[in-house]
Amino acid sequence: MRTTIHISRSIAVVAKITTAIVAIAMLLPLSAAWAQTSDLFISEYVEGSLNNKALEIFNGTADEIELSDYQILRYTNGATSPTIIPLDAHIMVPGSVYVIANAFADVQLLALAQQTSADLNFNGNDALVLSRGSLIVDSFGRVGEDPGVAWTCPGGTTINQTLRRMSSVCNGDTVVDDLFNPCLEYEFYSLDTFSGLGEHYSDCISVGTGHVVWNAIKAQYR
């Protein structure tokens, strides 16, 4: 009987200590914890009506990045020589996004853009590449291929839709001529959907520092 009581008390003590440790750990400041995204990547693609075209670029790294070191390359209708669209001087802090839109887009889309360019006039069958100098950091579509009207998959198409990068994607597609299946990395939204531009939720982003509560941690990782 005494042995049984002694074991029961020991279990209760261990349970209390474990509960206390968990409670303290949840109140301690958390240091930045990045799932090291290697570089910038395209987080949203808008192929809307008329001139409503836009790209959103996401900085999922732990560093500030100077955007003028990068450019967008547009390969029209299966071309292998691109139209080059330089990006403006802009410091992208970790976790931030940058939106570039067609210069003749609708007012509501232009209001969400930090940069405009008349050369950002792609359609659903044009490949797009994000590069830093000669280094490819991400691509959309397949360079050298004209898929006809668009690249399609069971979930959607690259024409007349907005495509948003899945939160689980942590790095860009650096192989520009591999097979392109947009369903593998993108979620599809209806024509002229702009509501997601200006923010990107990623599983690769830091929880941050300071005192946080569990609900805040979960919100960061949704």
- Integer average pLDDT: 83
Which fold name is given in CATH as the topology of the largest domain? Immunoglobulin-like
How large is the share of residues in beta strands?
A: 25-35%
Number of helices, counting only DSSP H or I runs of 4 residues or more: 3
Q: Which CATH C-level class of the largest domain is it? A: Mainly Beta
Summarize the helix and strand pattern as letters: HEEEEEEEHEEEEEEEH
Assign an overall shape: globular
Low-confidence stretches: 2-8, 10-35, 207-222
Topology:
Elements: H1 2-27, E1 41-47, E2 53-58, E3 65-66, E4 70-75, E5 83-86, E6 91-92, E7 97-102, H2 107-110, E8 115-117, E9 127-132, E10 135-140, E11 152-153, E12 156-157, E13 161-165, E14 186-189, H3 214-220
Parallel strand pairs: 7-8
Antiparallel strand pairs: 1-2, 1-13, 2-7, 3-6, 4-5, 4-9, 9-10, 11-12, 13-14
How would you describe the overall organization of this protein?
With 222 residues, the protein is an alpha+beta fold. It has two domains: 1-30; 41-189, Sandwich (Immunoglobulin-like), CATH 2.60.40. Helices cover 17% and strands 27% of the residues. It is built from three helices and 14 strands. The protein has helices at 2-27, 107-110, 214-220, and strands at 41-47, 53-58, 65-66, 70-75, 83-86, 91-92, 97-102, 115-117, 127-132, 135-140, 152-153, 156-157, 161-165, 186-189. It has a six-stranded mixed beta sheet with strand order 8-7-2-1-13-14, with no helix packed on it. It has a four-stranded antiparallel beta sheet with strand order 5-4-9-10, with no helix packed on it. A two-stranded antiparallel ribbon has the order 3-6. Strand 11 and strand 12 form a beta hairpin. The longest helix is centred in the N-terminal third of the chain and has 26 residues, at 2-27. It is globular and about 40 Å long. It starts with a helix and ends with a helix. Residues 2-8, 10-35 and 207-222 have low confidence and may be disordered.
